[in-house]
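Table 4 source record.
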Amino acid sequence: MKLKVPEATIVRLALYLRNLSEMERRGYITISSDDIAKSLGINSALVRKDLAYFGEFGTKGVGYDVKDLHGQILRIFGLNASWNVAIVGEPGLAAFFNSSFKKTGFVVSGIFSLDPEKVGTRVDGVAVHSMDDLETTIEEKRTRLVILAVSPVFAQEVVDKLVKAGVQAILNFVPVVLNVPRGVELRNIDLVTHLEILTFSVGAQKFWWDLPDQGVGLLKG
């Protein structure tokens, strides 16, 4: 039976992983749930509850072995092995993600572009392929994760090809609603929406505060 874990727990687990990576880099041997909680501004009981979904970790009164817990969370995420990630649509993203992926289990395995001038070039050492080679290359490299940044006009067509090639998860930067079959994970990152939220936070609220009896704030759920 598939383990049912709240999405919020998975998000925090990723933060624990980043925190433990830094602690290990700095030479820490052990760490407590209080230490982890304080670094993230949460309750230590929540840390223990999150970890309890996956088993028993640490020693009461001592804490967690940093290296061991780091390795256990890597295993939970499947990051004890490398994952090929393809970038589809914008070759320039490769340099950014390659830098971000250092010391993680992710590897940019291929880049695909509709721009004929970019096809055949290399970005940060990774070859840029034509969209015509999308399905074949994805299948050959057994790529299961894709970062999508194409024109909204072509997005669904590209997604259909990715699914056909065996892609199981897509991180979508295209501001359009996409349809994927059951079993394929789709995560949408709408940069415009996030920027609109930021403009409200830093500027638009002033309009409301300046109106008599109209003060409003940004409620965080």
